[in-house]
Amino acid sequence: MKKISKKxxxxxxxxxxxxxxxxxxxxxxxxxxGKAAAVSCIELYPSDLINSISIKGIVExxxxxxxxxxxxxxxxxxxxxxxxxVARGRILCELNTExxxxxxxxxxxxxxxxxxxxxxxxxxSAVNLESAQKKYDDALKDSENGTTLDLDMKKNAYKNxxxxxxxxxxxxxxxxxxxxxxxxxxxxxNGLLEQAKDALKTAQINYNNAIAANTDTQELVIKNLEKHLxxxxxxxxxxxxxxxxxxxxxxxGSGLLxxxxxxxxxxxxxxxxxxxISNVKTGMYVIIKSDSTGSSVYEGIVSKIAPxxxxxxxxxxxxxxxxxxxxxxxxxxxxxxxxxxxxxRLNVILEEKKHVxxxxxxxxxxxxxxxxxxxxxxDNGQNKQTAKQINVTTGLETDFYVEIFSAExxxxxxxxxxxxxxxxxxxxxxxxxxxxxxxxx
Length: 441
Fold this sequence. Notes:
The chain has about 450 residues and is of the alpha+beta class. About 35% of the residues lie in helices and about 30% in strands. A six-stranded antiparallel β-barrel has the order 3-11-14-13-12-15. α2 crosses α3 (about 145-165) and α2 (about 100-145) packs antiparallel against α4 (about 170-210). The longest helix is centred in the N-terminal third of the chain and has 47 residues, at about 100-145.
């Protein structure tokens, strides 16, 4: 007998297998008396298919300002309460500054006294400097005239007496007297000029010190007191709504006194799981709902995504299995019933297709060679319906639905949604309660 090749065996086996399948189907149909299998269908109509992730967050203000004071003076007057809208610069409260004002008045009086004393000292120093300068000029003139002449005469006399003494014409006593006279004249010349010079130098130093003297320290104290006085009137740094008041009349005005927030521009603070973060980008459209606002739906966009995962109190990345990244959604809807502090449910739209055919994810089957197909309900002309296989191309996929393309698809076509036991050409009976139109996810 001729040996059959492996390739030929394959082609023989496949028709045989198909024959077996059809025989089995025929047998099953015969055994059941031709009874149709019950299936559920959906009617195909163009719809919007959305792929999104669901997260939760807290409504906050886009701009929040904490109003602090470092002054410990007691609160004298409180001008606002929670819920008030305030314009920038409005007085929120005033502190009791009676002791501050008294201290400021005392410092100003001391400054005025110091200024008067400095002026007097400058005048006195100027007079002393002028006098010292005159004495020095006179001493210098004397040294150049009479004092110098007297010194030269005594010096020459002493030298002549030295020669006369060596020749024996005068006694030692006479030589000694001329020496004393010369020394005295020399000391007088040096002493008067140096004294006048020293006196002038001292007078100049005193005058310079008087001119350089200032009241910088006192003026700085006064400047700080005046700033404290201005700061004792607490004003709104921005326009907005007062959402918290911690100031109390009679209590210390130090610390956090008010919180002012922009209630017209709201954001939602949220976190995104690690396995979703790579799919989320800033600018993505967000659908916003809240239990507090019922069925109302608002819009927003992803406005900020943290570059690193949430950190713990020590500044290190939180070590846990479900790593999260902080994110922020800006609420673009202008008029909403959302209020600061409300919990919100968010759907971040990752991808969206409009007016496309889609079926439940389980309605699409795949062949061994990777081709996708669905089953549709077809009228067989005998008042009965059969399952028909249609090859399709898939597109956007969500958790429940998948987009499909095919030239054979048309509006109103019934696609079988439970295909696990359906075969091409088999009789089917559509469950009247299972038919539904293609829908938005």
